[in-house]
Every structure is written in C-alpha cells, then in structure tokens.
DNA sequence: CTATCATTTCAGTAGCGAATGAAAGGCTAA
DNA sequence: TTAGCCTTTCATTCGCTACTGAAATGATAG
C-alpha cells in the first residue's frame, strides 16, 4: 500500500519521470470527462470515477478511488454502486481479499449503447407517450364541433410534427442500442460514407 | 387583455368547452417538454417557454408568457433572450405596438440542428481537443524510454479508443448540422431504411 | 461466537444554478 | 423635453442536488 500508491507496477519500476507524467495525463482526462458528464446525464463525480477506471485500465478499490479523487467514502460507495447499476463498470472479487475492486468496460461503443438505452427509456419514451396522449386528448375534446378552430388546427399540426420527429429519433436510438458492442462502430462508419 | 386572456380568437369564439380543453392539452405538453429540457441541455423554464410558443403556434409577448407560466418578469426576459440567442425563437415587431412578440421556429428539424450544433461546439469539441492533447503529452512524456510500461500502454490504448469514438460521434453531428432544415428529415428516413 | 475489516446508509450541510422583484435603462409619441 | 410604457439588469433569495462523515450493517476469518 505504501509502495504502490497507484498504477501498480509503473510507480515502482519507473526509472525516470514517466509515472508522474502518466498520472498528469490521466488526471487531465479525468477532469475533462467529469465536466462532460452532464452531456451524458451523469454527474461530475460519477463521470470522474468512470474516467479513472477507464483511463487507467486498472481495477481499483473504494479506497483507491477516494484517495485519488479526494471524495468521501459515502460518495465513493454510492457513485460506484450507481455506475454498476448503469452497467458501465463491474465489480470484481479477488481470492483471499475482502475488499472489492471495480473496473470499467473497455468497449466505448458498448458503454455508449448502455447509456443511450437508459436515457431513451427514462427521458424520450415518456415524452413521446405524452405527445401521443395530447394528440388523443385533442381529438376527443373537439369531436366534430369546433375542430376547425384555427388555434386547434395549429396545435394539432405542431403536435403531429413533434410526434413524427420524436418517433424517428427514437428509432435511431433503437437502431444504435440494438447494435451494441463494437459492431456499432462499423455501422456508423458505413453510414457516414453513404452520406 | 380582459377578453382575450390567451389563444386569442379561440377563447372568444368558442361555443363549447373546446378552449379550456385545448389549453389543458397545451399545458400537458408544456410541462413534459420542460422536464425533458435537461436532455437538450436547456433549463426547465426555457424549455417551457419554448414549448408554449411552439405548441400554441401563436406569437406571445412577455406578459403573456409570465402569466401563463407563472414566472417573474426578470426570468421571462432573460429566458426569452437566451432562446433568441440560441436561435430557436424569434422576436417580432408589430406596427404601432411597442411591446415585442416572440414566436417559435416551426421546423422541428431545424431546431434540433441548431441545438445539436451548439452543444457540439460547447461540449464535445473541447473534450475531443483534450483527448488529443493527452495523447500528445503521453508520447512526449515517454519518449523512447519506458514507453513499454504496461500502465503507459494501457492508457494509450484507452485514449486512442476514446478519441476514435469521439471523432466519429463528432462527424455524425457534423453531418446532421450541415443538413439542417427539413432536409434532415429525409436523410434520416433513408438512413433508417438502409440499416 | 467474536473480532476485524469493508460497505452501505442517511441525516445534516454546503454549494450552486435558477428565480425573484425592484430599480435602472431605453424608446416612442406628443 | 417629458410622460408613459416596456425591457433589462442584478443583488438577493430560494430550492435542489451532491457531498460528507459517522453510525449501522454486513461479511469473513479465526
């Protein structure tokens, strides 16, 4: 524990400034990834933990994470659990050791698919459902009479456009999600060429 | 002002319950769209104002917005300005009237393109830049010696995967942004068929 | 069973972005 | 110029989310 603060072998065996430089590079990545978390709908700390596990490519225990990111035990515990729930990091048991280690998925495309699937389910599906419901309510409320009120027609048109848009967007997500793992990579490349 | 609280004609001319039902439908949409704002990186109030202007398809002035959404004058003013800055709503002057009206863009695909472009610029570009910088720093720091440290190799591989991913994602955004307006609609439909 | 070590929970706190509302600023018409 | 109307600004307040740290819980070894 004293000798191998982090990065295991590198710290011990390095003969020049490499380890500290490696650490600096990793820290830069972690900071930026944390800022970017919002884009993914993940808070800063969770994104940083994930970045740490991803970029070091080394399983780490709770204490490693706490120490390197300067966060409390409670925070580390909850964030690690949440990341496991998302499915973008995994627990790892080791023979004869009590503490648990965590490692990131290595496939970026798979991580992306997982996150996209979850966000679609949580945020897009309900909105699409609401729009459809609004559309139904509008028809019902209007039944024949006054269906030609300009205001009603305008709202109906807007709802229809939005429903079409959300429907297509949802299908795109579906396509990506359905092709998780690195396969997506190839599909996207082909797609881009065909444009 | 007393007679036409909102929705102009509909309120005055409606002969049955239509106007209030229309209003309810619109309010449902507005509420849900506000919740969804986060997905787009837009706060709740801004999203609600936009939803209001979009779904009613009727230009509204600051007071209309304040009253219908129950927000303060300051909030309305700042949010409307921000939406104008984004470019997803537009100011409208009227002859002989001092107050300004605001209306939403009507093309959903255009709105999407605008938002995507802005978010790419603000959030994805800097991250991609950081990753590239990290990659350079890593090569530099290691120059020949110790370049084969397992920890260094691992981090290098991870950074490369991420860079490739972000690069492709960026290109996809670029493609969408470059095809703003309804043209996108067709492109997406074609794409989905080809999958 | 007990001691030891690790994880989880949760009440309390801190920090930050969003909202308020009143005061200041601009325009337009007369 | 002045009066009236509308918009913008900004110091203050509010409310929410994330974080802490200590106590409770759980697990393993002896």
Summarize the structure in words.
The structure is a homodimer of 195-residue chains. Chain A has a three-stranded antiparallel β-sheet. The first copy, chain A, has helices at 9-13, 18-40, 44-56, 62-69, 73-86, 108-142, 150-178, 183-194, and strands at residues 60-61, 89-92, 101-104. In chain A, helix 2 crosses helix 3 (44-56). In chain A, strand 2 and strand 3 form a beta hairpin. With 195 residues, the first copy, chain A, is mainly α. Mean pLDDT of chain A is 85; it is low at 1-17. The termini of chain A are far apart. Chain A contains eight helices and three strands, in the order H-H-H-E-H-H-E-E-H-H-H. Chains A and B meet through helix 1, helix 2, helix 3, helix 6 and helix 7 of A and helix 1, helix 2, helix 3, helix 6 and helix 7 of B.
Based on secondary structure, the structural category of chain A is mainly alpha
Number of helices of chain A: 8
Query: Which pair of chains forms the biggest interface, and how many residues does each contribute?
Result: A-B, 75 and 74 residues
Oligomerization: homodimer
Give the radius of gyration of chain A. 24 Å
Uncertain segments of chain A are 1-17
Element-level helix/strand string of chain A: HHHEHHEEHHH
Shape of chain A: elongated
- Percentage of helical residues of chain A? over 70%
- Could you report the average pLDDT of chain A, rounded to the nearest whole number? 85
Strand content of chain A: 5-15%
Most strands sheet of chain A = 3 strands, antiparallel
Give, in spatial order, the strands making up the sheet with the most strands of chain A: 1-3-2
Terminal residue distance of chain A: 54 Å
Number of strands of chain A: 3
């Amino acid at each position: 524990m004293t000798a191998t603060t982090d990065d295991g072998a590198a710290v011990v065996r390095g003969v020049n400034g490499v380890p500290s430089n490696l650490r600096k590079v990793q820290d830069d990545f972690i900071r930026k990834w944390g800022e970017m978390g919002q884009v993914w709908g993940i808070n800063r700390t969770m994104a940083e933990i994930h970045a740490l596990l991803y970029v070091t490519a080394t399983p780490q225990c709770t204490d490693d994470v706490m120490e390197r990111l300067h966060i409390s035990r409670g925070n580390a515990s909850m964030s690690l659990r949440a990341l496991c729930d998302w499915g973008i990091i995994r627990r790892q048991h080791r023979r004869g050791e009590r503490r648990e280690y965590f490692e990131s998925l290595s496939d970026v495309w798979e991580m992306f698919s997982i996150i996209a699937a979850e966000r679609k389910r949580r945020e897009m599906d309900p909105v699409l459902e609401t729009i459809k419901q609004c559309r139904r309510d509008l028809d019902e409320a209007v039944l024949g009479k006054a269906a030609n009120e300009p205001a009603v027609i305008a709202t109906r048109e807007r709802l229809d456009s939005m429903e079409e848009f959300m429907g297509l967007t949802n299908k795109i997500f579906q396509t990506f999600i359905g092709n998780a793992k690195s396969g997506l990579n190839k599909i996207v490349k082909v797609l881009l060429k065909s444009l």
